[in-house]
Amino acid sequence: MGDSLKVRRLGESRVIETCNHENKRDNSFWQFLRKDKNTRHLFQLAFLLVTLSTGLRFFIYVFHAGGNGAISVSRPAGVEGFLPIGALISWKRFFLTGVWDTVHPAAMVIFGFAIVISFIAHKAFCSWLCPVGAVSEWLWRIRPNLFLPELVIPRWLDISLRLVKYVLLGFFLWITWNMSVRAITVFINTPYYKVSDVKMLHFFTRMSALTGIVLVILVIGSIFVKNFWCRYFCPYGALTGLVAILSPFRVRRDKDKCISCGACSKACPHRIDVMRTRSVANPECSACLDCVVVCPAEGALSFRLTKLRKLVVTPFSLGVGIVGLFSVVYVIAAWSGYWESSITELEFRQMLRILDHQVISHPSW
Ligand code: SF4
Ligand code: SF4
After folding, report:
1. Ligand 2 center from residue 229 Cα (angstroms)
2. Its pTM surpasses 0.70
């Protein structure tokens, strides 16, 4: 009884010390940005706005290209970020032949960036950049304002459902594995692949009843279940998670500084029991750093490399690092001609006309 009281008092005094320390430190806007839990949401919002403006610009481009007049905006290559399967097979061809896809080159750049950032910063792509992940997460966050209860999926069902995204990933990897270089080259040059970005746009602007029903299910699911889409169905997230296992950066817990309050485990959106682990190597960890932000014990929890204990990545520096790296990748790709599609405006207009009058279906092998 005496010992446990002593331990509890030690813990409490550490929390009070930490709180006092935080009060002293967190009185500037700079510190707010560096430490506050809203930092990630600001980055998510910024990327969501960039994605929406890219989508709107592409909509205008397609709308104008469908007529006979001039097109008032240039085609935003960033829309190709929504073509991950095409990027996957293009990367296979690149590794086997060194040939870059000129039809949707930005798809390869964005996909490659997602993989690299997952290796460097442990699946941070999902919780800091991905607009779908952001919307899914925010839908869950508005739930209390709608006075709706949270649906806590039983552990056995949660684990079973999580496998779905790996099954979907396995399916796409299997298709990619079985495609020969010749088949990939033929596919990349089909009208189907050339207008796949337009088909993706029509997914929203000419929504079928089935698509609408699926979207409604995903929206309702996201309101009741935390990270519904990312957690159970996203094959992209499954892939970045598997790459993240190799990442040297992880959430690491210093057991000497930890006061075993359990705040980190409670804050984790992926139900990882952070309090009982030394370093989080779980492929579900999205490097959201929510656990780090809520930890009351200074230095107990940090996102860092194993050996370099001083190289601690704060939420703010992680966000800036991701944006900085993406900016560098974009500038290099754009400057070296690996970003803009080789499809001319004339060819694009011709394919749009075909698309409007007949179905361009997936080529059969
Ligand atoms: S809360 Fe921590 S352990 Fe959980 S996903 Fe976020 S960074 Fe990973
Ligand atoms: S690491 Fe987790 S359990 Fe330990 S002090 Fe921080 S929040 Fe509490």
Report:
1. 28
2. yes
CA 231 to ligand 1 centroid distance, Å = 13
CA distance 78 to 200: 13
Query: CA neighbours within 13 Å on the CB side: how many for 131?
Result: 14
CA 81/CA 329 separation, integer angstroms: 14
- Measured from the Cα of 289, ligand 1's closest atom is 7
Ordered by start, the domain boundaries in the chain are 33-249+314-357, 250-312
288 CB near ligand 1 (under 6 Å): yes
Pocket test for ligand 2, best of 37, 275, 280, 291 (most atoms within 8 A of CB): 275
Q: What's the residue count for the chain?
A: 365
Residue with tokens 């709706």: 148
Mind giving me the DSSP string for 153-195?
--HHHHHHHHHHHHHHHHHHHHHHHH--HHHHHHHHTSHHHHT
Q: Per-residue pLDDT tens for 84-95?
A: 999 999 999 999
Query: What is the distance between the alpha carbons of residues 232 and 162, in angstroms, rounded to a whole number?
Result: 4
Q: How far apart are CA 39 and CA 84, in angstroms?
A: 27
**Residue 198's CB: how many other CB atoms inside 10 A?**
21
pLDDT in tens, 287-336: 999 999 999 998 899 998 766 666 778 888 899 999 999 999 999 999 99
Top CATH class, 250-312: alpha beta
CA 105/CA 94 separation, integer angstroms: 11
Q: Which residues of 219-256 are buried (b: 16+ CB within 10 A; e: fewer)?
A: eebbbbbbbbbbbbbbbbbbbbbebbeebebbbbbeee
DSSP state of 333: H
Please report how many Cα atoms fall inside a 13 Å half-sphere around the Cα of residue 126, on the Cβ side: 30
